[in-house]
Amino acid sequence: MEAHSYTAPARVKALLVPLGNISESAFKKYVGKVRSSFEVRLVDVTPTENSLFNPQGFPNGRVIYDFQLSLNDQESIFLHDFEPFRKTFVVIGITDDPNCSNDDIIKLSKLYKSSITHTAIVFSSKSENESNGGKIFYQSKTNIETILCDITRNFLNDLAAYLSSFQHITLRSPGTIGSNDRIKTMETKKKRISSGSSLSLSLGDSSNPKLSLSSSTERRQSKVKGRQLKILGNLYLLAGKYNNALKEFNDAVPLLRTCSDYLWLGSTLEGIGVCLVMLTFLGVPYQMPSSLNSVLHTTLTIPTPSSTPASTPRNSMAINGNSATPSSDISRFSTPELIHHLTVKVLYYYEISQNDHEDYVPQLVYCESILRFVKFMCVVNIGGGFNNSTIDHIVRGKKIYPKLQNSLFDKMDILKFSNKILTVQLKDMDILSQAKIYSSLASIYGDLNLLRKRSFILRTLFVSLIPELSNNDHSTKTYELSELLDTILSIYGIGRSPETALEDSFASRWVQLHKSVIQLCIIICSKVGDNRRVILFKSLLLTRYSDSLTDNEQSRLLTEIQSICRANDLPFTYFDPFLVRNIEIIKPINTPKKQKQASITNNKEDPFIYNPYAKPISSDGVYLVQDEFVEFQISIQNPFAFQLNINDIQIDQFETFRNHFVIQPKAINTLSVLAKPLKSGTAQISSINIKVFDCQLQSFKIAKTLKSEVVRKLKNDKSFHSKVLEEYEENLTKNRVDGKVNTDELTLNVISAQPNIQILSKPDHLMLLEGGSEKLQLTIKNNSPVPANHLEFSVWDSTIDPLKNVLNNKGLPANEVYEIEFFLFKNPLKIINEIAEIKPYETITLDLEIQGKRGMHQVNLILDYGNKVEDEIYTRRVEVPIRVMVNPSTDLAGCDVIPLVQQVDSKRGDVWEYINSQKDCNITDFALFLVDLRNVWNKTLNVNIDYDGFGVKESIVPLETKRILIPIRRIQIQDDDNLKMVPNLSNRQYILPKITKAEDQFIREAFWYREEILKKLRGAWSVGDVKGEIEFRGIRLSQRMLSVLKVDKVDIKVDVEEAVDKKGLHHVLQTDEFFNVSIEIRNNSSNDIGGILRNIPIASNYGSIDRRLLFNGVLQQPLKNSIKPGETVKILIGAVILEKGEYEWGVTLDEFDTEQSHIARNPLRIRAF
Questions:
Q1: What region holds the Trs120/TRAPPC9 fourth Ig-like domain (predicted)?
Q2: pTM score, two decimals?
Q3: What is the mean pLDDT of residues 965-983?
Q4: What share of the chain is helix, strand, coil (3-state, %, to 5)?
């Protein structure tokens, strides 16, 4: 509560102290609960044994507690008998120990002897000691309001006993007890009285014969009686019985006035004013004290404030003229007006009491009386009058909201009273009292928005504190300056936190004034030996005012902070909360990837282990491995003019490698920090722990960018902080920067420990011939304690990318696409010995075989490995590059297919020997496949070629081309009219080129007939011990070649039925001799065939055969029945040759439905003699 509130004399000071072993946090929490119930209604208090302060006498009353945590009345003990409200009456022990006993109450009584009531509140669910004489209360069974009602009853009982002690003692004024602090001014009293008061008073009380006493004895008795009544009124005021207090004060006024006891009379009149406010607060009607008629019955000369344009008849401070105020007019005054008149009288009596060498007013009483009334005027001014909200603020300290309407007191009225304090020299007061008075006066000026006056007062306080502090022995007397310093900092606007709030960072500041005030605070703290606050103030300069400090000043402040800390073994906090600007992780070279369920298959069952189109099946993100180092890049800023020494950087959930860095002045550096995660899971890095210089390890959030919220440009009435330094220190230690900058967070996935495979040895550069192969070995080792039980090998070679580029040509026909994809999927590397697992720290050797692939210069063996646990696999990849040079060995220069029509003696060559060895075959069932093979290597190649049991061995010298003859049985493919499409090895979407149906049919036939050849055709070469295979996929078939290779759909054979001699291709017959021509028709298709059979005999000289050849029947005749698939029909035609010569007998079959013609492949050749 406000220490200088007008109703402070009606508050009971109660000290809250920790009892037992209660923790600081618990004590603070319970103190908050107790403070929330500071007001106790007398109607809720149990009646007391003594009737004097019995709450039933005035049930509307209130006991208002002022709970405090420290004794701050030690400097004003000499005033306790004069103004009892300054005394700490109640001591309450706060504990959570259920074993609290009366012994603890006795200890409190011995420790705080001046207090009259000692109790304890136990915040515990257990209550073992219920018999405690009503002094120990358990909050678990009773709410805090009821407990305070019981404590209030004890206080009222003890207050009655305390009052009885005044009956047998003489009440002396503070001046006779030991205080010598008279009011000292720089002018004479008369001048100050006439000039300082806002009223011109005609006062002559002491010369009034009606008020004089007959003897000194009666005067002394009146003084004693008046003082006792005044003290009783003060105690009634504390007890909440405001009507009784008003009566006692009213009775004391005439007694004190008749004996000219002006000091006690002034205090009594002030008590009456407090009673009037409290009764108004309660809404209890009261009768105007009769004593006021005589006291205020005087001529009042009230100057009209002509300088105030807003003066109205409502303003009681603007009464016209020099008018007498009769006693009958006093009842017409409002409460604030009465208090104003009473205060004028109080100050008058206080000032004239200075003529007495014993009963004079102390400086503290005089100044605080003025402050209480000025506070009263200020609240009425701000609140727009004496209304419920202002009364609540005066009594209860509730928040008040400013109103712009006219009030009873304007600023000029308030300043006239507040200026009285400035005429008093306060240097003889104790330092704490000076600080309180100056601070309250500064607070009043702040409330009135008189900022320059406020600044002047506080600077005056600071200047006066320095010599006072220098003259004291700090070892025997310590000053608690935190509250004062925080108040001063708040008033000057230094309480704003630009390092934590964006709004505060844009608020206007008087930088030089702030620096001057902070320098004064540093000097004061240095004088009292408070090194911790010296460090905080110097740090504050670097945090908030570094831009206004020179480079030398910044360096000097750092040096001073470090020297103080080293000399006193004190920690200090680094002063830049935005030290960390960014953090990134350098992606490790070989990070594990999480494999999806679809990829967890057996290598043997995966037909596409060598798939150049295969993409890694993994989830997004980077996975870190537990206990494996990773590199972080942390951006650190140094806005100061000195170097920063980073002595340690730590990251939560990581173990960092010991590091030390130096950041140059006014720079932002990126630091590389090695760290390894300590456990698996999700690691969220929102802050980094850094030790700068010899500071304690601090947590710094990642300050990315300044927030872009719109800052209000209107003046912001920000409430002053009560603990500026403490909040500043918390801002640094807790790094509260979220209100000013956008902070960042780095989320990382950490998996459990994984295997780590190392390549110990790999092959050197190899040279191969195309089609050749070479075996090699690869040694690998598992360098981790985790087994690698998931191994997946794959291969990449340098031909993949060029072949993919060729495939991008959308105009390629399907057969060419197949050929390119065939070579694309051709695996040049094989693993001979398969392995399923590599145990921890095991070394194994892989046996490999590499084959020469045309155009290849490098092949990579890729191993994806990991540790499979419950169908969850994280794999790493290791690649072994093998450099190779593949030289060409053979080249397919060309090929052709020719038909065979003449039987040749088997002794004339391997081809004919092979053909003649085939049973049930004619020579026309074969074709001769010609292959032109070229040796492009620089050594002789031994070539072996095999086709369906036929073998050829040749030696080809360098750069020689040899034609190799291979007999091939004609190929029959069922339903070749509906051949399948050319396969797509990559399963890619294939866009059909714009070709005709006939062209598409040719492509299909050429592809499938060639595939039939390649199934049986094998070739190999050798050069010494080096062996390899011949690649025949360069074979291309033309339309003519296809017609030779294909078995006809309708096979027509023409022959002489009788056995006759043959010479070469001709059958030898005699002229004029009858013979039969046998025509066999076989249906090799899948459909029935019907049509017209045409016989076409011709002479070799192409002459007419009408006179040379006779035949029986017709040459053209339809087939009687359709020929079923696979069926053979034989037709005979008789004929006679009349003239010798050579003849040919050809046959054709013209189908009815398809209009196709089938010709006998070998016509019948006849030579007649």
A1: 1051-1168
A2: 0.58
A3: 84
A4: 35, 25, 40
